[in-house]
């Protein structure tokens, strides 16, 4: 039988309802999800019952393209 953590597959973006933070599911550790901020940083553990799928608007606001890839806006005037 799968744990509740297996409900969210690695790569999907979820909201940690305890903090309101958006994170990408990296893996499952025991009964917890391991989440990482969209543009990198320190992972944190989240119980699956405290997570929900991020909406398209939430993903877009965090700089995540429609295909799920993480993108950052271009620096103004640099073309890079």
Task: Tell me the name of the CATH class.
Answer: Mainly Beta
The run of helices and strands is EEEEEH
Radius of gyration from CA coordinates? 14 Å
Could you tell me the CATH topology label: SH3 type barrels
Descriptive keywords:
80 residues; mainly beta; SH3 type barrels; five-stranded antiparallel sheet; 1 helix; 30% strand; globular
Overview of the molecule:
- This protein has one helix at 56-61; strands at 13-16, 21-29, 32-36, 44-46, 51-53.
- With 80 residues, the chain is mostly beta strands.
- The chain has one domain: Roll (SH3 type barrels), CATH 2.30.30.
- It has a five-stranded antiparallel sheet with strand order 4-3-2-1-5, with no helix packed on it.
- A hairpin with a 2-residue loop joins strand 2 (21-29) and strand 3.
- The protein is globular and about 30 Å long.
- The mean pLDDT is 84.
Quick recap:
With 80 residues, this protein is mainly beta. It has one helix and five strands.
Topology record:
Elements: E1 13-16, E2 21-29, E3 32-36, E4 44-46, E5 51-53, H1 56-61
Antiparallel strand pairs: 1-2, 1-5, 2-3, 3-4
């Amino acid at each position: 039988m799968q744990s509740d953590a297996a409900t969210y597959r690695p790569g999907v973006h979820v909201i940690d309802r305890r903090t309101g933070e958006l994170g990408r599911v990296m893996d499952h550790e025991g009964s917890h999800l391991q989440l990482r901020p969209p543009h990198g940083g320190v992972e944190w553990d989240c119980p699956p019952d405290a997570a929900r799928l991020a909406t398209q608007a939430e993903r877009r606001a965090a700089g995540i393209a429609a295909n799920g890839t993480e993108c950052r806006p271009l620096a103004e005037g640099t073309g890079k």
